[in-house]
Structures are given as C-alpha cells and as structure tokens.
Amino acid sequence: MDNPEDWTFLNKGKANAIFKYIGNDMNYKGKVIRLRLADQLVLSKEIFEFVNSFRPQLHQLIAMELIPVSSRFLTTLEQESGIAIKKDTHGIIMPLIGLPEQRKRVSKHISLYTDPVQNHLTVEIKPKWLYSIPQHTSLCRNCALNFYRDEELFCTLDLLSPNLITNWVDKLGLNEQHSESLTQFLSNSDLFHILYDLQHFEDIHETIGTLTNENEVPEELIRSMALKDITIYISFANDDTKVTIIDLDKKHPSKYRHWKKQEESLWNLYSQNSIVEKQCYRHLPR
C-alpha cells in the first residue's frame, strides 16, 4: 500500500490532495487516499477522529480508514503531482465516489450529475448554514453570501419545511421522475433536520464578530463551522437511493479570522432594504 507507484493524482481541493489507487491489491481497488496540503494545520488523524465523533448521528458519512504513511511515500507523490503535501504521519483511505458524467451547475452549492442512458441522477448539495435566522435579518447567511457574489438564491433552509420542498425541487429543472424521487426523499428524510440540530450555536453571528484571538474560539463553534462545509451526494439509480456525506473537516481555530472577515462583509446585507426583491424565499423581511 505504501508504494507511491500504486497511486496517481486525481484532484485537489482547498485542504486536501486526492490520489487514486491503481495497484493490484483488491483491498484498495476503487479507493482513494486523501492527504493534507502543506499549509493545513489539522492533521489526518485528528480529522479521522473528529469525523468518527459524528457517526452515531450521521450514518451517511463516507467510510474512512486511517493508515500510516512514510515520508518517502509523501515526498514521491508530492514530486509527481507538483503539489505541496503536509509532512503527516497518516493518510485517509476512502471509496472513490463515482458520479454520472453530465454535470449541470445549478448554483455555487448545487450541482446535478445525470446519466441519460441509465436515467441515473446524483444531486450534490452543500447545505452550508442550517440555522434559525436572527430576528433582525431579512436574509439568511447562505442567501446573503450568494447575493454578495451575485449567485442564484437557493435557500437550503427551505428543506426544513415540508410545504416548501416541492417548490425548491421544481426550481432545479429535473425530469418528472427525478423530481418526484428527490421530493419524496427530502420529504421523508430527517437528514437536514439532524444537521440543523448539530450545527446549532446560539448567537453565532455575534460570537464570530467579537472573536479577537484563537484561544477565544469555542470547540462548539469549531464543530458547527465544520458541519457548515460538508457536501451531500444524493444518488438515484434503479429504484435505489444512496446518500453520502463528505468534506467534514475539523477547522483550526485560526480560521476565525476568515469567518470574522466574511461576517463583516455581509453584515449590512442581512437587513438591507434595497435587496428586498432578492430575499430568501422562505423568510420575509421583518
């Protein structure tokens, strides 16, 4: 397993590099190894333990195996990929998620992957902030950020209200079968309500806005912010529905600077009267 020649670079995100297994060991066929990028402060073992702490509530979390890696292994993959990799002691093995080839980007946080021949569909959703909007705001955090970026407003808070799900799905432009399948799943699943409960952090806007150093960042906020960055894949194939959650990475307290800066840039948008026409679908201005 520790032979770098058995792995080939697949892709890179903001925090991790992904390598696909191409060797002959059947235990790793169809799997990838996720390695931390050089500038990351949270190591793979800590992330592995962090993710496992959520498994009792989120059984849809992608399977993970923590394995030791040698410095030679990391150095060779770094040289072959041209990507700076963290000098870590472990990597994380995960199944390779196979997606249909045709992709339609609905918004920054929603994509549709379809196979018209097999009639398969995978919906990628990054739900971001699932929380109770403060009384003084007219836009939730998700919609404020999308408005700031001039993105389509797809309010994932609508998925918490059964009477709003059908309208939310209709906006995706799916065929009738897929639309019915997704609506039925979202109406019957408690996943987004569980995420809402797990993300809960009282007065989160105010807390982030008053942070001045890493030592002030509470563990509950770190957990809440990590849950706000997950990706959910909902796949429909041959009357089978599968849900997979990825990207649950523990945040380092130093991230508070980024969170605070973003809050400051959005603060006026939460209640600005000039954006009434692009308000959240669910939440009318007060």
- Structural class given helices, strands, pairing? alpha+beta
- Specify the helix fraction band: 25-40%
- The Rg value, from CA coordinates, equals 20 Å
Largest sheet: 5 strands, antiparallel
Number of helices in the DSSP assignment: 9
Distance between the termini: 58 Å
Tell me the number of structural domains: 2
Q: Whole-number average pLDDT?
A: 91
Spatial order of the strands forming the largest sheet? 1-2-3-5-4
What letter string, H or E per element, gives the SSE order? Answer: EEEHEHEEEEHHHHHHEEH
DSSP summary, beta strand count: 10
Taking pLDDT < 50 over at least 5 consecutive residues as the criterion, the unreliable ranges are 281-286
Percent of residues in beta strands? 15-25%
- C-alpha geometry: globular
Question: How does this structure look, described?
Answer:
- This protein is of the alpha+beta class and 286 residues long.
- It folds into two domains: 92 residues, Phosphorylase Kinase, domain 1; 177 residues, no CATH class.
- It is 30% helix and 21% strand.
- The strands form two sheets. It has a five-stranded antiparallel beta sheet with strand order 1-2-3-5-4, with helices on both faces.
- Strand 9 and strand 10 form a beta hairpin.
- Helix 4 runs antiparallel to helix 5 and helix 7 crosses helix 9.
- The protein is globular and about 55 Å long.
- The termini are far apart.
- The C terminus is likely disordered.
In short:
The chain is 30% helix and 21% strand. With 286 residues, it is α+β, with helices and mostly antiparallel strands. It has 2 domains: 4-95, Inositol-pentakisphosphate 2-kinase, N-lobe (Phosphorylase Kinase, domain 1); 102-278, no CATH class.
